[in-house]
Amino acid sequence: MNQTVQQLSASRKGILATDSTKGIIRRFEAAGLTFAPELDKRYKELLFNTNNLENYISGVILNDSNIKIGLGEILKQKGIEIGIKVDEGLESFNNTDEQITKGLEVLSERLENYKKYGATFTKWRGVFNISDIHPSDNFISENLRRMADYAKLVQDKGMVPIVEPEVLYDGNHTNARCEEVTTKVLKKLFDILKEKDVNLTNLILKSNMVLPGKDSGVTMMPLEVSNSTLRTLQNSVPNDVPLIVFLSGGQTSEQAIFNLNEIVKLNIEKKFGGWDLTFSFERALQEGVLDVWCGKEENVSKAQEVFSNRLQKVSKARIGEL
Ligand code: 13P
Q1: From ligand 1's centre to the CA of 209, what distance in Å?
Q2: Helix %, strand %, coil % for the chain, to 5?
Q3: Ligand 1 — pocket residues by CB below 6 A?
Q4: Residue 190: phi, psi to the nearest 5?
């Protein structure tokens, strides 16, 4: 296994996502703060300088502006792998209301540049919205073709690609529908990755958990979530994939962490696949941290304590011992 994948699979650790660009603006606003690059830098420094971060976090996903202002340096000093989100967001798919991921143009040159900043792994996110008619077959194929082209380019540059086909939690669909769509998308993804000769042993899958839609009014117990999530992965992800990481997708921190714990526990008991499992949360790891900080220097250590407690909890969930 590639050394970076091995580092990212370290026991008790997972990946911290800090790469959102629109989401972070919304979260600043919700905490009563106006987003500005300087304030964002101070917030990321607060997170990355948290004591013992390296005991819980194996890698951090940065965005373009964060890597370019040198935030990766703090991580490098702690022995944490530097990741970079390389997709460039969404655009309309063939003038329909489906939103496809863009960013393949000049990706090769951009990757060279990110390597200079120390990046060893990358992320590309595609989103799949569930409705009665969505996602359409054409959309699924084209969105995943772009994702596979990205993965191939990244491997050719000697870096590890994270492929993230996110089936959205938004909507009022059933859990069965989420399972159906997630299975279909993942099967198609691995078909295309194989067609394009992407090396599955040197790749990480970032997946949603299988859940009923956020507006469905149904909340599933962690054991049910773990059963449907692991069944879905077993039916669609080849055993060659070394590591699957989960996004939190808009679940509360509590939900995401307890669901992860149950998924890991059940996989240890029943061994659904050859892959290892951990977290790559953004919102669920940072919940409450901004509110406590409020942009004020005097609140830094209190905010770091909230973050640190969260890290200790998710680290236990990562080994199914919460
Ligand atoms: P959330 O955990 O907030 O869903 O973010 C993970 C991520 O990287 C989405 O692209």
Answers
A1: 12
A2: 50, 15, 35
A3: 17, 125, 164, 247-249, 281-284
A4: -70, -30
DSSP states along 216-228: SS----HHHHHHH
Tell whether the model's pLDDT for residue 228 goes beyond 60: yes
Q: Ligand 1 centre and the CA of 247: distance in Å?
A: 5
| Active-site annotation holds for 115 | no
Question: In terms of pTM, does the model score above 0.85?
Answer: yes
Distance separating alpha carbons of residues 218 and 161, to the nearest angstrom = 34
Cα distances from 210 to residues 65, 162, 225, 261, in angstroms, run 32, 19, 6, 14
Nearest Cα neighbor of 302 from 311, 312, 317, 289 is 289
Structure letter (DSSP) for residue 165:
E
User: Taking 80 as the threshold, does the pLDDT of residue 1 lie above it?
Assistant: no
CATH number of residue 127's parent domain: 3.20.20.70
For residue 168, how far is its CA from the centre of ligand 1 (angstroms)?
Answer: 11
pLDDT digits (tens, 9 = 90+) for 16-62: 999 999 999 999 999 999 999 999 999 999 999 999 999 999 999 99
Number of domains, the chain: 1
Range of the domain at 267: 2-318
Sheet holding 160-167, edge to edge: 14-17, 57-62, 81-85, 119-128, 160-167, 204-207, 243-246, 276-279
Token representation of residue 256: 């995401």
109 is catalytic: no
Distances (CA, A) of 308 to 50, 58, 246: 7, 15, 20
Q: What is the pLDDT of residue 239?
A: 97
The amino acid sitting at 234 is Q
